[in-house]
From TrEMBL:
Signal peptide: none annotated. The keyword S-adenosyl-L-methionine does not apply. This is Acyltransferase family protein. The keyword Transferase applies. GO terms for molecular function: acyltransferase activity. Keywords: Acyltransferase, Transferase. Residues 66-185 form the Phospholipid/glycerol acyltransferase domain. InterPro entries: P_lipid/glycerol_AcTrfase_prd, Plipid/glycerol_acylTrfase. Coiled coil: none annotated. The lineage of its organism: Bacteria, Bacillati, Actinomycetota, Thermoleophilia, Solirubrobacterales. It comes from Paraconexibacter antarcticus.
């Protein structure tokens, strides 16, 4: 075994030991009382920093479970997670159960405790299934770290990396899909590379479920390497558009072809994202 492989193996084992195990009951961490208390202040901060423009909230079903499927942007400080939390809680009220799937390391970051109280849960099939069984709204980002760390010049591209599990999840629980299309997050830093080769070399795909080790240019440190290295996000303008809900069986038949559904939904989302991109005059400014 080469020295490089030995070093990579040691780094992978060390990193793997730092990641806490899955907690199956973390849906219960959502705290409407805390949300009600903090919602005005956090919404004010988000409004000042991201100047959010949230459209189409009326497309989200008024009651019952639904799977909200979003494109992902902005690295580990993904603004659409915060903005959608606050917008949906303000629109429907904090009592309506709304959860967002996130990577395990996000939930064990310094802000992880607060995110849990606002409904962020670990991106695990057991959590997703439980949330939908209980009639909640559930937000998923199929592109995960692959999409969220894409280069900034691909900010107007929907790229789920061919991940289709969200379609099977919606079919299994017979819930509508509500596409959520976001633009702006990829402008809060200059994302240079996903660093997929480096992540594979360090075996992060096995130990941390990360396929990317991104290279980012952002204040205050300049060049930043790694998915969870902190940086100060630029105060970009974030626009979110919720599209009309899609009943998969009513739209595609009783036994839908998953590949065809995937192509159609991502194509629809891409059309909306392209239109939002055409509205923007300048990066960051919006």
């Amino acid at each position: 075994m080469s020295l490089l492989n030995q070093v990579a193996g040691a780094a992978a084992r060390t990193a793997g030991g730092l990641v806490p195990r899955f907690r199956p009951g973390n849906l219960d961490d959502r705290d409407p009382d805390t949300m009600r208390e903090l919602l005005p202040g956090t919404w004010l901060l988000a409004s000042a920093w991201y100047r959010p423009d949230v459209r189409g909230l009326h497309h989200i079903p008024q009651e019952g479970a639904a799977l909200i499927v979003g494109n992902h942007s902005g690295g580990s400080q993904s603004p659409e997670v915060f903005v959608s939390q606050l917008a949906i809680a303000s629109y429907f009220g904090v009592e309506r159960p709304f959860y967002q799937l996130a990577h395990r390391m996000v939930l064990n970051s310094p802000v992880g405790g607060l995110l849990r109280r606002f409904g962020t849960i670990e991106a695990d099939p057991r959590n997703a299934e439980r949330a939908l069984r209980e009639g909640a709204l559930l937000l998923v980002f199929p592109g995960g770290d692959y999409e969220v760390f894409r280069p900034s010049w691909q900010s107007a591209t929907v790229d789920f990396g061919d991940r289709k599990g969200f379609i099977r999840l919606a079919l299994e629980h017979d819930v509508p899909i509500v596409p959520q299309v976001t633009i702006g997050g990829q402008e809060q830093a200059l994302f240079l590379s996903r660093g997929e080769g480096l992540a594979k070399l360090l075996r992060l795909d096995r130990t941390l479920r990360l396929k990317s080790l991104p290279i980012i240019l952002a204040p205050p440190f300049g060049l930043v390497v790694g998915p969870f290295t902190p940086f100060i996000p630029l105060p970009t303008k974030v626009v979110i558009q919720y599209m009309e809900p899609i009943d998969l069986r009513a739209t595609y038949g009783e036994d839908p072809d998953v590949d065809a559904v995937y192509a159609d939904i991502t194509g629809r989302m891409q059309d909306v994202l392209t239109a939002l991109q055409h509205e923007r005059r300048f990066p960051v400014i919006g």
